[in-house]
Each structure stands twice: as C-alpha cells, then as structure tokens.
Amino acid sequence: MSELKNRIDFVYIFDVQDGNPNGDPDAGNLPRVDAETGMGLVTDVCLKRKVRNYIQVAKEGQPGYGILVRSKEISGEEVFINREIRKMYAEDLGIDLKIKDKAPTDKVASGRDAMCKRFYDVRTFGAVLSTGPNAGQVRGPIQMTFARSVDPIVSEEHALTVCAARDETKSYDSQVGIQGRKSTVPYGLYVCHGFVSANLAKQTGFSEEDLQLFFEALKNMFDVDRSAARGLMSARRLIVFKHNSLLGAAPANQLFDLVHVKKRDEKNVPRSFSDYEVTIDKEKMPKGVELIEEI
User: Fold this and answer.
1) Are 21 and 150 in a shared domain?
2) Is the pTM here over 0.85, yes or no?
3) Domain identity same for 150 and 272
4) Distances in whole angstroms, Cα of residue 237 to Cα of each of 49, 75, 164, 279
5) Which domain of life is it from (predicted)?
6) Which structural domain range is residue 279 located in?
7) Number of DSSP helices (H) and strands (E) in the chain, helices first
C-alpha cells in the first residue's frame, strides 16, 4: 500500500431525474430541502452509505475491505458494532471479551488500529468505537459536505394504486385502489464538496489505493443502488484538486470557487444535465495544486 502524502479537495456533481435522492423522515420522507431557499439537499451520511454499499459489493470477502456500518438490505444480516469489536479483539489480538467486558486500557490503541485494518469505512470515514468493549475513536481522513442543488427543486407527489388484495379476511375493495403516495424531484443537479486529509490518513492507514477505490465508488455507486424511489441518479463530474504537500498550497474554498455550474439558458426549466454547463477557471489555478478531472 502506498502512503497518502498529498492533501486532496474535490467537487462531486451528480443529478436525479424523477426520483427522491434523500428522503427526510421528519417530513414524511419528502426530498430534503433548504426551507429558506428551496434548494435540494442530500446529506453526507446518505452519500457515505452509497460508498459503503459499493465497497461491500465490489470487495466482498477481501481482507481489509470489510464494512463495519453495513445495511441489512445489502448484507442480508443484522449488524451489531459491539459484537464486531469483540470479534476483532478475539481474532486479531487474542483477547476474549464477554458481552459486558471492557478491553484492557493498554489494548485500546491496538484495537483501534486493528479496526482500521479490518474495515475500509472505519479508516476512511472514521467511527466511534468506544461503546461496549471499547476500541477508541477514529477520525477519518475523508469528510464530505451536504450536497446542495444548483437551483431550487420542486417536489412532486404521486398517488400509488394497488390492483391485488393481500388479506382474504378483509374485503377486496378495501385493499385495492389508491393505497399510498410517493414524492419525486423532476430534475435536480447537486454539488458536494469533499476533503481528504493526508495527516489523518497516516493515523488510520488510509492509502493511495484506498483513495482511488473511493473515487471509483463515487463514479459507480449509483449503479449498485438502484431503486424505484430514487429514480435515475447519475454521477456527472468529479473534479479533484491535488496539493503538492501534506498541508496544501491553497484554501479549499479558493479552489471550489474555480468551479462554476450554471444553466445554459436561464429561461428554461432544467430537466437534464445538458441544460447546465460546468466550467473550471484553469488559468487561476494556484501554484502547487494539480487539477484532475476524474469524471
């Protein structure tokens, strides 16, 4: 594995057509929205979930690429983090902990390192492992912001009808017809900003190969996460700013300001990615920063 020696900042642009990219459970699972501006939102947690799901499928069974925070719908099993920590202590460090046992204080650091080696998402995004048997806390080298739509979104509500009854003890007519509703965004283009700390990567063992796998996940994760509710979601641009040092050569916001996303025709209502134009002010690129267009 190659050590990560450069600070990385990136801009990730994706879109949704006729789907709900991230429902809000506090609002009847409507698409998340900034109440003041009407801009659509997708949380960092939602995006990380998709990255985890992709890695779990792409690297299934390979040592060092386990996923600690696994969803039952992908793994087909119920996951308990404390049980995973105890399993690590038993298999990797030879320490047999019962359900209510705490790891010896002088072994917590070793447990933390072992969890980073075992689980890709722990060494990438970090984790709180101090509950139960205790393997400390990990601050991950990759952080991501909420994704925000370029323009205000419109949430459309659709009635759902059922044509087949389920329960023979109830009347047929009471079980068919309109039985539910779903909400979708006709079209939305979202922009997310991300940061990769080479300093924190050293602490967790996050490598250059891990970084390339992360970028691979951003490019392809929507293709292993299809559902009727999410409509058509696609990765459109992945713009990477690679610094020539551990600390970096320019502030992240200065680099992000070089990326411009705007409608080609302000009078049109956007319904596809072709309705937008993405440009980068390459002439204003600071010294010591390399531009890499992954998508």
Assistant:
1) yes
2) yes
3) yes
4) 19, 29, 43, 11
5) Bacteria
6) 1-43+146-154+182-295
7) 8, 14
